[in-house]
Amino acid sequence: MRIITGDECGLLKETIPELSRARKGEKESERRIEEGISRLGQQEDIHTSLDNGDYDDEIMGGALNMSRSRGIVDLSFCASTNSNSDGNTSSGNGSLSFCALRVNGSVERWEGMAPSSTRDDCMLGGTYTCIQSAQDIFRDDSVEQSLQNGEKNGGTIHLYGRPVAMCSVQRTQQTDTVVKNNNVLACCSSLGYISLLDSNHLGKGVVARYNVYSKNGKEPVINYTKGNFVNRSVVTAMDMNYDGTRIAVGGRERSTTILDLETGNSLWKAKNLPPNNQTLLQQPIWSTAIMFMDPAMTTSATAASNSTSLLAVGTAYKQLQIYDIRTDSTQRRPVIYTPQWDSNKKNLLNHRITCLSQLDGNKILVGDAAGYVHTLDIRKIGNESSKFRSLDASVGRYNGPCGSVRQIIKHETLPVLAVIGLDRMLRTYDTNSRKQLDCVYLKQRLNCALFCEDKTWKMDGSISGESSTHDSSNTGYHYIEDEEGSVGDADKVEDYVDSSEDEHEDEGVHKENMDHESDSDSNADDTDDFSEDTNDTLGSDSDSDEEDDDYKMKAPSKRRRQH
């Protein structure tokens, strides 16, 4: 497996988790955590060029800089330039194309290939090159010119917000699905500005610009939130559907809205939950994670979702909401949602939701700000009317992360998922048993990741074409298994034994042994004395008998005193 990660310092890294496992004959503490980690953007790999063939020296030097102002916000796969006439990308050659959105508002396109010709090549990092770049994608020159001329807002500075998310219809490295807008990149800022770019021609700049919350072409008004702080986080989450025709956007004090990708018109807008029955106060709105349900996972008869008609939204108020987004739907409120968080009751989710991922047609992975990754079954969520507050909807939890989870990604073919977050760890799990497979330390706080389609490695850590035993004699790496037993087995509980009682019993046994030794020594002395007295007179014999009787009477009393 190959995983590409982006962190807050602007570094792109490729990680092969299998190489960080303990080798055969080594202890877990002796494993080499630095192996399998390579940094993208080395000096010999930077050949950034524009469409006219000129090289940009500033971009070439900037790709090597490590700065928070160039931190990676999001990563997304994009259509390869060597696509065939039908529009689907070539598969099986190991080629990889992805784009990176940075904090300074720039988008970079990277292309590369993972070596897989020999066994040694499978253990090396791939070769990746930054070939294109677009700067200031949210900046509108026409607006800036009007502001300079004083035609609008009295010549004040125009705010575009910070980059929030980037998405494309390309969800995996290779795809055979023919999509109309497979080369479109959608980037969103915190003030609701959406910029569309052509991933194959980033040098041409922004193709189209929209604003989610603008009315009649006017700029959105920045409102004030509680505490008189300016609400500049109008948009906090965005996602694109699998057809590449619609975009869902939501944020703080803004309902989730779906836009048409070509026209920018609003197609659907969510409606808030009913007010509280007791206080009659409106439910707060803050969407922090948005995900379109995958239609490929909903083909089974038991799946609860149907096509792309369901939209999952995670909120900052510890709720998971699922909407029916069909245009002919009569209900714009969530059809399924977890009960509202209550400090006096048991809750299904106790922290702010930060990311979502679909495991199958009925299960959703939820990551929160405290490092918990829950598996929720949407068929068991009973809304507010549930007697047990839908606690049985949580069918499992992945242990390990100790910081805010930023992204959860699932492998395209293998039952493996990767979790990254602010704890600087890259963790991989087996989705069948929820056991942790790998844990790699990447030094910087991670924001996003991509799961490459690398078929050279298997689940057990061996290379394809070799024996699938856990101990590979060729590679030297082995898969560390846990103790025997399945997840559903009951735990073995032993009877509790107080340590203080054991100590008292040991002391009593020790004292009794000492008493027996002292008694045996005194008996031996008395026997010697009795043999000597037999040669004396009968009177002396009677005296010895009396002494012996006195000893027999005193010995038990001695034991009683010591006890």
Q: What would you call the structural class?
A: alpha+beta
- How many strands, what sense, and barrel or not for the largest sheet? 4 strands, antiparallel
Q: What general form does the structure show?
A: globular
Number of strands: 28
Question: What fraction, in percent, of the residue positions are helical?
Answer: 10-25%
Mean pLDDT: 75
Q: Which parts are unreliable, with pLDDT below 50 for 5 consecutive residues or more?
A: 43-62, 151-156, 467-488, 537-542, 557-563
Taking all Cα atoms into account, the compactness measure Rg is: 35 Å
Quickly describe the structure.
The protein is α+β, with helices and mostly antiparallel strands and 563 residues long.
Structural descriptors:
alpha+beta; disordered C terminus; single chain; four-stranded antiparallel sheet; about 575 residues
Give an overview of the whole structure.
This protein is an alpha+beta fold. 13% of the residues lie in helices and 28% in strands. The protein has four helices and 28 strands. Helix 3 runs antiparallel to helix 4.
Topology:
Layout: E1 3-7, E2 12-15, E3 37-40, H1 57-62, E4 72-77, E5 95-102, E6 107-113, E7 127-134, H2 141-148, E8 163-168, E9 184-189, E10 193-198, E11 206-211, E12 237-240, E13 246-251, E14 254-260, E15 266-269, E16 287-292, E17 310-315, E18 320-324, E19 336-337, E20 353-358, E21 363-368, E22 373-377, E23 394-398, E24 405-410, E25 416-421, E26 425-430, E27 436-441, E28 446-451, H3 499-533, H4 538-562
Antiparallel strand pairs: 1-2, 1-28, 2-3, 4-5, 5-6, 6-7, 8-9, 9-10, 10-11, 12-13, 13-14, 14-15, 16-17, 17-18, 18-19, 20-21, 21-22, 22-23, 24-25, 25-26, 26-27
